[in-house]
Amino acid sequence: MQAKANDSMFPALPAAANSVGWQGNYFVVNGKPTILWSSSIHYARIPREQWRERLVEARRAGINTIQSYVFWNAHEPQSGVFDFNDNLDLDAWLSTIEEVGLYSGIRMGPYCGSEWLHGGTPQWIADQPGMQIRKMYTPYISEVDVECAKILPILAKHQIHKGGSLLFVQLENEFPGFPKVAGGTDDPSDG
Fold first, then answer.
1. What's the number of CA atoms in the CB half-sphere (13 Å) around residue 116?
2. When you count CB atoms within 10 A of the terminal residue's CB, does the N or C end of the chain come out lower?
3. 119 and 70 within one domain
4. Structural domain harbouring 1
5. How many domains are there within the chain?
């Protein structure tokens, strides 16, 4: 299965333009010029009972945006078995960010890095014979599609233009290369 855009879930510019955009040298959030002061806090690494305290501390330090990774191997430790309980409750995490009055950004991978085992790639995927991790148009992408089908609906309901605080989603992290383009190479340092 080939990855494809889902504009009904993550709409193009016109649907969200009144909630988030870019003007000159700054973001505009809900009609106000906004500088994003961001910090990374990874919900999966923190006991749920400490979430609010950590977020309040970040806000008191002048942070207005929290970035979080979604660690795939934490949420799907076995093929088709998903865990969104306790400190893996992504929906509750985003709701807590909103309650504290912060914006959010999610770095959902599938690869995250962040000194997390296999960058978040589940071991059961890596153990499949012939599996090519992080390669497009392979069985790996079919597994990514399954993960995305579980994560994206949670993120969609927290988008800024739907009353939530989610400003952006980063797909993939530390990508090892780029497709060749006319006149270029696949070397990320080229261009």
1. 23
2. C
3. yes
4. 1-35
5. 2
